[in-house]
Amino acid sequence: MSKMKSGIFTAALATLLFITSCNAAFPRDTKEKSTAHRRDVDDKSRTYVPITSPYRNVFLPLSDPEAVSITRFLHDQPKLNLTAAENATSWDNTIVGVETLPPNKSVALPFLNGQKAALPKRYAKATIKFAATDEPYYEDYLVGPLPVDNSTDWQPLTFIYNKQNPIQRVYDADGDKVGDFVDQLEADVAPILQDLLNATDGNGSLTTSRIEPLWRENGDVIAWYQYWRSPTLEFDDGTLLPQGLYFKLNITGRDPKGWSTLGWYYDGIFFNSTEAFQNSWKSGKVAPVPYETDGTWGTTDRRGEDLPLDQYNPPMAIKPDNPRYGVDVEQQYVEWMDFSFFISFSRDGGLSLYDIRFKGERIIYELGLQEALAHYASSDPYQSGTSYLDSYYGFGPYAFELVNGYDCPSYSTYLNTSFYTRESTHWHPNSICLFEFQRDYPIQRHSTANYVSITKNIMFVVRTVCSVGNYDYQFTYEFYLDGSIQVLVRASGYIQSAFWAYNGDYGFKIHDALSGSMHDHVLNFKLDLDVKGTANSLMKTEFVPVAETYPWSSGKRNTMKLEKSFITSEKESKIHWSPNGAAVYSVVNKDAKNAYGEYPGWKVIPTTGSSIHLTNPNSSNLGPSVAWASHPLYAVRQKDTEPRSASGLNMLDPYAPLVDFGRFFADGESLDQQDLVLYFNLGMHHVPDTQDLPNTVSTLAQAGLTIAPQNYLPAGDASRASRQQVRINHGGGEAHVTWFGGGGEGGDDADEKNGEPEGMFNLTAARSGVEDYTGGFVVRKFPYDPANWYWEGESEDQQSGN
Predict the structure, then answer these.
(1) 57-81: pLDDT as tens digits
(2) Geometric angle at alpha carbon 504, from 502 and 507, rounded to 5°
(3) Which long-range contacts link 292-297 to residues 24+ away (Cβ below 8 Å)?
(4) Whole-structure pTM over 0.90, yes or no?
(5) Which of 90, 685, 739, 750 has the smallest C-beta neighbourhood within 10 Å, fewest atoms?
(6) Which segments constitute the DUF1965 domain (predicted)?
């Protein structure tokens, strides 16, 4: 992952954003608002059944009027001394983020449980950058209740953080002045740049990128920079063009007069000053080494020899019948088969799901991304010093429009998302998709000499793609008929590469002067399971080898047993998956045994790719800010004061994070029949090779975890209720097919109904329509002008908030 100076992360602090409600304005069959609650629509052209949520979505992002009123309210507070974003300088206090603060679980549950509790009051979290000081900082404020009226108040938001003084220092508040300092430095060494790299920054052929996070050395603020060649074509392949020249700055304080250049690094040699570097070059001791240049090798357009028969259209998924799921677009509520849930969206983590119910019972209160890191390693100071915590940049702002027919089937339902930066709302249309899909294998089958029984494997998918820097992360939540839910992450896009010299121990050489820099991807998710209530325990069921003597055996037999145990406290709830996949962990309810005396529960199992942890948990770059990355699975007591495992501001000062996940375990509380929360990690250890050029492909770059019922359903497999199955009796050489009503009709005489679709299908209606791709539009919120409220067609800089 790379946040290049010339790319969308020029001013990373400017990407702390406002998230507003995902209202509907969809070009593809989603313009109609929810009507009365309906279970069927006789219209094959529709993608979903319009329904009405049984209750309000208390997790919805801010509405446009709420965002406008909060911004005005905060500007009216003299103590904050705020300046409008469009007029602000680096020495002004500004609002950099406003979004919904989800209600505490203790408040939301009575309402969701239908206990005649009042609708939870809405509050917002406002992030303010206090820059009118020699020691600038961020501080979050609680604003509410909403809507803004005479009862609305504001106060520091402290209860969700475990830092003693929950403010976060900003050590690079003067990016414009740092840019000027770097420009002057580059002018001083322009002849060297021309000689070593055959380019200069002054003519745009070079750019520089800084390590993230900044280093702190003996109280000083240290920044390493690397030169990168600028792309010469229209493609975003700048992260494939590192040049082997680096410089080190001390940018402590806000006065550039106190800043200094601490050294240069080139061809394995460190020069402790610019003068030493210049003198060595003048004396011929510094000579050019091969460098990487741009070319078609870094482009993603088609090239190479034709593939046989590739000129023909491949098979495609179609929807042959009426819609089979319901959506309340306004409330972001979804129903499919036995499942229902609410959708929410945030700046830091993007898509989250709340109040997931199966057969009417809540099984999950919250499921969503918390944080993602990309930790690099190298012999050079730039890659060695680079470790991104991506919630700092935010996943929400980079959930761009999905490509119909490519990211999602052409019959999908699309939802919009939006974010609010520099006091303007930016909309990303069609950035969440919902669809049904038939897997290429059955969920159940069995054959005998007389019959075969088989059931189609139908899943429901919620998907979004977040392009954070050079990587595109696809987040997918798959729901299955048997009650299983799979959480999947896939990655593609450009790698952040390293210069080839001296990096043989850190990656493969994959181009002329390019190393595929090794790195860890670790993505942390929150899973708040509620199994028949909130009083739950964490059970471990393990295959163990034993030597056992039985009444019928003549001696000991080498075999295995099932060992059942419980993780009883937070002292033992940092968990590594068992070798050989021998153990399964499940959240169960001891107080609700099923008819057979077993504890009902939901188990969690890594099922795709790798469920990993950080290779070196004691990261010099990130310190305690990545305490959540030392193990692949954790269990803690649910607390309203611990809603997230991380904060988007942690990367500003990783050794003094706002949220230190390690402190969640400090009191070692009991986990026996308590409200439990699991945190799990997905990701991969990535060593790019030539197959990652020009882009990493998702074939191997994926990881998933499945949440599945365990002794939860007394009637057995829930997929038996599906009509999408047949039984074929074939004894005597003649087949008799029992249909169960799949195909639009069915009922009591389902065995007489042929469930296969019939008739002609309009392929034109299933075209992708990629020509309609729009990108997004902008709505200014402060100062708000309802007569001139949007500009269509964002540029990349507008979308990123630069």
Answers:
(1) 999 999 888 988 999 999 999 999 9
(2) 120
(3) 292/229, 292/240, 292/241, 292/242, 292/243, 292/499, 292/511, 292/512, 292/513, 292/514, 293/229, 293/241, 293/512, 294/229, 294/230, 294/231, 294/232, 294/233, 294/237, 294/241, 296/233, 297/511, 297/693, 297/694
(4) yes
(5) 685
(6) 239-305
